[in-house]
Write a structure and sequence with these properties.
Layout (H helix, E strand, L loop, with lengths): L2 E5 L2 E4 L4 E8 L6 E8 L6 E6 L6 E3 L7 E6 L4 E6 L8 E9 L17 E2 L3 E6 L1
Parallel strand pairs: 2-11
Antiparallel strand pairs: 1-3, 3-8, 4-5, 4-9, 5-6, 7-8, 9-10, 9-11
């Protein structure tokens, strides 16, 4: 059974930092491209960041570029999202997602919800201004 378990969310003030983690089990993590999405109340789930299977390629939604960093540790089957200079508009539930890929797609990143096969349950991030 595939499990993606997010952690690291919390209540912080604007300008603070948080580091989210997503631990994967039940799948071959090293062949998966990974992504982070977020969903604020009353809004659709949106793309935040993605990292390729080989860890070389990353992409971010414009509103987080320069503030968020996605990374992965294949030895720990974990993907991270370092979030700096947090703003109130970053408040949302954050979800990690996994997509199994082939070696020919090792450098690809995926920005659409529909492209991912597995999802975690989410971790709440609340930023007070």
């Amino acid at each position: 059974q595939v499990q993606l378990v997010e952690s690291g969310g919390g209540l912080v003030q604007a300008g603070d930092s948080l580091r989210l983690s997503c631990a994967a089990a039940g799948l071959q993590f090293s062949v998966c491209a990974m992504g982070w999405f977020r969903q604020a109340p009353g809004k659709e789930r949106e793309f935040v960041a993605a990292i390729s299977r080989d860890g070389i390629t990353t992409d971010y939604v414009d509103s987080t570029k320069g503030r968020f960093t996605i990374s992965r540790d294949n030895a720990r089957n974990t993907v991270f999202l370092q979030m700096n200079s947090l703003k109130s508009e970053d408040t949302a539930a954050y979800y990690c997602a996994a997509r199994s890929t082939t070696i020919s797609n090792s450098g690809d990143v995926y920005l659409s919800r529909q492209q991912y096969h597995y999802w975690g349950q989410g971790t709440q991030v609340t930023v007070s201004s």
